[in-house]
Amino acid sequence: MLYCVHLNNNGKQEHKLFPVYKLIGIAHKAGGRTILNDKEVINDVLVNLFNEIMELEGQAIITDEYKDITNNDMHIIAAIGLGEKKMSDIAAELNITVGSLTISMNALVKKGYAQRERSEKDRRVVFIHLTVKGRKAFHHHAEYHRQMTDAVVGALSDNEVGVLAKALEKLSVFFRQYQK
User: Fold this and answer.
1) 47 and 91 share a domain?
2) Nearest 5°: phi and psi at 15?
3) Which of 118, 114, 115 is nearest to 138 (CA)?
4) N or C: which end of the chain has fewer CB within 10 A?
């Protein structure tokens, strides 16, 4: 974040904190050059992008129809998917404990988004699957991600899409290794 002075819509000076990548976008739109280096941009994007995506996603997917669940609940629904999964597999996918998942799952079951079913082979194993209501929420969430991806890809050239995909794959590998 950089502390900057800018003119507001009324032409008055305001002092405000801006993410670096927004300043670069503003400078680029104005035809200006910036002295910020790539590492500063990357740092700022990494620090802010996740939170911005989560906030936008929450606004987009938690509509009136889904106001009874949270953005985190929607991610649990996405992790369950359209088949059935064991609680331990869902927890591992989300990087949370089975205990934490159990609390959220109790709410999703109570609200009619998911169902539990014990394995007939091993009664200790609990399978989770989505109800009709849960599958509808799953598709709603998937559609948001499709639209978001289409919007990003639509703003880039074919070459830029390839470069972005490769960079994001490397970033993902780095963070997965960093977690261990």
Assistant:
1) no
2) -100, 125
3) 114
4) C
Query: Cα angle at 94 between 83 and 162, to 5 degrees?
Result: 90
Same domain, 13 and 79: no
The pLDDT of residue 46 is above 70: yes
Q: What is the pTM of this model?
A: 0.72
Q: Which of 56, 76, 92 is the last residue of a domain?
A: 56
Structural domain for 28, as ranges? 1-56
User: Are 84 and 150 within one domain?
Assistant: yes
> Is residue 128 classed exposed, middle or buried when 0-12, 13-18 and 19+ CB atoms within 10 A define those classes?
buried
CA 87-93-99 angle, to 5 degrees, is 45
For residues 110 and 73, state if they share a domain: yes
Helix (H) or strand (E) holding 112: none
Tens digit of each residue's pLDDT (9 = 90 or more) over 112-171: 999 999 988 998 888 999 999 999 999 999 999 999 999 999 999 999 999 999 999 999
Vertex 55: Cα angle to 49 and 57 (nearest 5): 95
Statement to judge: residues 72 and 49 lie in one domain: no
Does residue 83 fall inside a structural domain?
Answer: yes
